[in-house]
Amino acid sequence: MRNLKLLKSLRRSELQGPGSPQCFYVRADTGSLLIASQYSITEYDPRTGQVVSEASLTADSFLPEDGSGVVVGLQDLAELESACLATASGDVVLFNLNTCQLECVGSVDSGLTSMSWSPDEELVILTTGQETIIMMTKDFEPITEVGIHQDDFGEGKFITVGWGKKETQFHGSEGKQAPTVAWDDRRPRVTWRGDGQLFAVSAICPQTGARKVRVWNREGVLQATSEPINGLEQALCWKPSGSLIASTQRHPNKHSVVFMEKNGLLHGDFTLPFSKDQAKVKELLWNSDSTVLAVWLEDMAAGEDGQVNSHIQLWTVGNYHWYLKQSLDFGRDPQKAPVCVCWDPERPLQLHVVSRSWTSITYDWGWMTERSPGLDATDNANVAVIDGEKILVTSFRQCVVPPPMSSFELQLTSPVNQVTFLCRPQGTNQVAAFTANGQISIYSQGRLTKLAECFGLPSKMSGIYLIILAALLDDPLALRQLLWLEDELFVGVSSGLLPTSSTLQMLRPVQDATDTLGVRAAVEVDGVVVSVVHCSQTGTVALQLEDGQIRKLVWDCPEPSVEDWRDSSGCRINFPVPCIQTALCSISGEECLLGLTDRSHLYAGDTELASNVCSFAVCNDFLLITTHSHTCRCLHLGTLTVKGLQAALASDGSQNDETLRRVERGSRIVTVVPQDTRVILQMPRGNLETVHHRALVLAQLRTWLDSLRFRDAFECMRRLRINLNLIYDHSPKVFLEKIQTFITQLNSINQINLFLTELKEEDTTSSMYPRPESSSIQHQPSSGQKKVDVVCDALRNAMESMDPNKFCLSILTAHVKKTVPELEIALQKVHELRAPGAVSAEEALKYLLFLVNVNDLYEHSLGTYDFDLVLMVAEKSQKDPKEYLPFLNMLKSLEPNYQRYTIDKHLKRYKKALLHLSKCGEEHFGEALQLVKEQKLYSEALKLYATDSVHYKALNCAYAEHLVEHQQAEQAGLLLWRCGEPVRALQAFAGSSSWRNAICVAQQIPLPPDQLALLARDLAEKLTEQRRYADAALLLDQYAKVRSSAATVFLEAQVATFTRHRTRLAVVREQKEKAKLDMLDCPDAELYSEASSVMTGSKYSQSNSRISSRSSKNRRKAERKKLSLKEGSPMEDRALMYALGEMITSVDKMRVHNLLKALVLFQFDKQAAKLQLSYEEALQMMEAAVPEVWPESLQNSQALLTGPNSTANSIMASYQQQQRPAASQQGQYNV
């Protein structure tokens, strides 16, 4: 849905010469023009207006001096730095562009009718006066010569499969072809395919007098001959992409451009907008990328002055429809009529025209989508497509109509060249068309412009014709870049006083002639203006020059002017390279001009944003682009800087990145519907697709939710499958405050139910739809309740206060959708439905069954103890009455409390079952006790019985047994002591080493002294094993009457533990030595050793790297965790060595000498002697064990581990290991 928009035109009339141009060619390397006339050949640079080189063709008699000579072909040969031309007299001449010398490289006696070089300039085809084809190399060596007219079809001859006989078939006008038209120049036409492998020749058949097309290959072998085509004309051009050959055909009732395949068969056509004998087609010309077909026409009938009119039309195709995009009318002046037309070989949309008066005009077009510039909901998102005398307008806000169809058509009387929409806000649905005859037609949709009111036009779509002053219409498309700024103000660009300048024409209605626009002001611009763009928000008009410079038009003042474009700091801003599409926008509050080059580079001023952009559009502070990586990005300009835009476009996007979505390859943005979520994309084949970009959708939803338009947001979210949790998550506090507004706006039970059923605990604003960085974070209410419960309760309370009967089903949904479904409450409400106007109980139950599994609902209905409700649910289920009726009848026969106990036990609600069973009397206590034991409901059961009852005591005893089984003997002892079971309590306390409680219970019983002493000794032994030496010594002293000190007990315990660890260490070392020998005997021992060392090293390094940053205390703690005394652990030997070292250190640090002094002072000599002896024996035993525990070989191997592979932790560990054996060497204390 793009139009061709003229970017600039360069008109040069400095070149003058004798005769008139006959052939011309564009040099690809320099851009200069090679023009040949009947007298000379000239190289001319239209940009400077200078003649580069020139040579006379009559001086060396290549052409006659009387001007009757004809040049039939001209070609630039870049490799030879020469130009090759062919004359009708038969000479092939080389023109050296450096020396300006002419050289005849060959001559044909019969003369030449055409010359055509292959695209790779390796071959040249000459057609002679004898109707033969001469194929030569680039060095002009002949390859072959064949006749144009061949009786054979060619190598591609079709195979007949025998379906009927030729004599019995209808052949139309075959064999009765009409001769060619009188104006045909009867010369052969030669055209090459883009790859240079095939060429086609159109020539007049001698037998029929009609034209026929033949296709030849590169070796000069005929491939195919076209089918007989009545009215086939002289124009011939092969599409560079190689698919079709274009020509023209005159039908009895129309004039068409037809297309042939390489096998000569017709393949499509389109009709020219002329009657049968109105115009003749002189040439057809494809541009280099095969997107535009130029048709050069000339009127058949002369005007009153005897002159004919000339036209050049530009056609494009989309969705198999041909559009007439541009029409250049050169008028009836023979001096202005084009004599040579050619596309530029390097720039696909640049067209060169040379007139009879030697004036050269260069037109540069660009692809542009004409869309309405509105930013509010009144804009219909119109897109206008030019198609000859029609404008196809599609209003994408109302509907999406695929091209070539449209919402409506505007029919004009002349071909349309430019379309522009009114830039004034609230009036952007009005369109103006500039036609080839110099008129502007204004159309209004819905309401009229001020201009329309002046003419009293009807209120529907209608046109007004305003005649432009003739001074602006000397050449075709003299006025370009038309912009409709205000109701009575147009701005256009025309050529300036100098070829390198432009003039901005400010056009307003002329007071004396109401149907005429006149120039009210003209602003000269130093540079060629190639684009004019307007911003509807700020009213700014920006200009871009051909070299990328940016200017600003100050137009809303009495004297319009042009000034440099500057940023907020006052620096001039220009594009690095010229851009073919521009748009104004605001980035972080600063107005900026965006530009897209023909190389897919997107610029914001002088900063490149991306280099893979297909198309872009700006709408409502959003920048949308499509890229060559098949993505569509949507970025909010208000929250990003230029650097931020660069970073965003360079990133690949995260999983939940709302700015990114995938699109089809080659998608282009047609338009964006303002204040909406729709983006219209056009695919390469021409069809349209509407996408709702996630960024636009979420931005629109946030706007609606902020303005409390819940219904609009809900409908959009449901249609586009946006999670409905966003309604609450966007602003929880506001939603809860305006919950009645939410219910009132939705006013639909189904929609409220849908919202409730989609509720989740997940916060969608932090997972699925992250908030924009600039938005404020809305925190969830900190009530401690879950989100689903909060919303369900709030909605239920609001609906119950508004109309409980109307919202009955939604209230049930709110109960059911809570995190712990309130099914009993919901069932009870269903059972109580009796109010008039409300839904029936049966309907409510049926709806409830839709939300909840029927079996679950049956179980919960049973839990209400309401058998009528149970029967109502059971009847709606798939259960067999034989299954549930006997069970219900059995329940009805039971006592009420026992009945409820039975139901609760069936539903596995054991706490409720115990409550009801406790009310059934003493005869059921045994059953209750069994239930308590099975379900471990001891705490709940103790609350249900009096503390002085027998049942309470029985429960306490059962609870104590349970605690003993679970290694909680002390708590069990307290329960038994409390309920009067001292003997059992004593056993429990003794088993848990709770010696104080045990002594108290023993004294309460009371136990005899000898049994009490025995109990104390047993308890002391257990305490000693638990290393509670002080408690053990206290027990022995006060209750067992054993006068032994705690120090003696401690020493004895340490010696026993030391001996046990020492023995175990010897066993572990023996096992490790044996395992090492076994590994050495294994053939793969070396491999295992290396692998184990690598694994051990990596593990050690990883462990140390994890704790390297910890404090020294934490590091020591982490090291100790590695040492486990558990048998079979990997580092058991080191753990045993560490434990033995700790015991030696603890024994050595005992302050025995102070204790011995005190014992002697108070005449405890025997105890002192015993302690002295025990301490001395312990030290001697430990000292004797040092060589065994820390042998000399081990001490030598434990040198400091230093080196490049060591860490601070490993060195410290090595140092500590060396220090541990030193404990045994410290001084002994003697008294």
Automatic annotation (TrEMBL):
<dbReference type="Pfam" id="PF23936">
    <property type="entry name" value="HB_ELP1"/>
</dbReference>
<comment type="pathway">
    <text>tRNA modification; 5-methoxycarbonylmethyl-2-thiouridine-tRNA biosynthesis.</text>
</comment>
<protein>
    <recommendedName>
        <fullName>Elongator complex protein 1</fullName>
    </recommendedName>
</protein>
<dbReference type="Pfam" id="PF23925">
    <property type="entry name" value="A-sol_ELP1"/>
</dbReference>
<dbReference type="InterPro" id="IPR056164">
    <property type="entry name" value="Beta-prop_ELP1_1st"/>
</dbReference>
<dbReference type="GO" id="GO:0033588">
    <property type="term" value="C:elongator holoenzyme complex"/>
</dbReference>
<feature type="compositionally biased region" description="Low complexity">
    <location>
        <begin position="1099"/>
        <end position="1111"/>
    </location>
</feature>
<comment type="function">
    <text>Component of the elongator complex which is required for multiple tRNA modifications, including mcm5U (5-methoxycarbonylmethyl uridine), mcm5s2U (5-methoxycarbonylmethyl-2-thiouridine), and ncm5U (5-carbamoylmethyl uridine). The elongator complex catalyzes formation of carboxymethyluridine in the wobble base at position 34 in tRNAs.</text>
</comment>
<dbReference type="GO" id="GO:0000049">
    <property type="term" value="F:tRNA binding"/>
</dbReference>
<dbReference type="InterPro" id="IPR006849">
    <property type="entry name" value="Elp1"/>
</dbReference>
<keyword id="KW-0539">Nucleus</keyword>
<dbReference type="InterPro" id="IPR056169">
    <property type="entry name" value="HB_ELP1"/>
</dbReference>
<feature type="compositionally biased region" description="Low complexity">
    <location>
        <begin position="1213"/>
        <end position="1231"/>
    </location>
</feature>
<feature type="domain" description="ELP1 alpha-solenoid">
    <location>
        <begin position="694"/>
        <end position="891"/>
    </location>
</feature>
<feature type="domain" description="ELP1 three-helical bundle">
    <location>
        <begin position="1046"/>
        <end position="1189"/>
    </location>
</feature>
<feature type="region of interest" description="Disordered">
    <location>
        <begin position="1099"/>
        <end position="1126"/>
    </location>
</feature>
<dbReference type="InterPro" id="IPR056167">
    <property type="entry name" value="A-sol_ELP1"/>
</dbReference>
<feature type="domain" description="ELP1 first N-terminal beta-propeller">
    <location>
        <begin position="1"/>
        <end position="346"/>
    </location>
</feature>
<dbReference type="Pfam" id="PF23797">
    <property type="entry name" value="Beta-prop_ELP1_2nd"/>
</dbReference>
<dbReference type="GO" id="GO:0005634">
    <property type="term" value="C:nucleus"/>
</dbReference>
<dbReference type="GO" id="GO:0002926">
    <property type="term" value="P:tRNA wobble base 5-methoxycarbonylmethyl-2-thiouridinylation"/>
</dbReference>
<keyword id="KW-0819">tRNA processing</keyword>
<feature type="domain" description="ELP1 N-terminal second beta-propeller">
    <location>
        <begin position="385"/>
        <end position="670"/>
    </location>
</feature>
<dbReference type="GO" id="GO:0005829">
    <property type="term" value="C:cytosol"/>
</dbReference>
<dbReference type="InterPro" id="IPR015943">
    <property type="entry name" value="WD40/YVTN_repeat-like_dom_sf"/>
</dbReference>
<comment type="similarity">
    <text>Belongs to the ELP1/IKA1 family.</text>
</comment>
<dbReference type="Pfam" id="PF04762">
    <property type="entry name" value="Beta-prop_ELP1_1st"/>
</dbReference>
<feature type="region of interest" description="Disordered">
    <location>
        <begin position="1212"/>
        <end position="1231"/>
    </location>
</feature>
<keyword id="KW-0963">Cytoplasm</keyword>
<dbReference type="InterPro" id="IPR056165">
    <property type="entry name" value="Beta-prop_ELP1_2nd"/>
</dbReference>
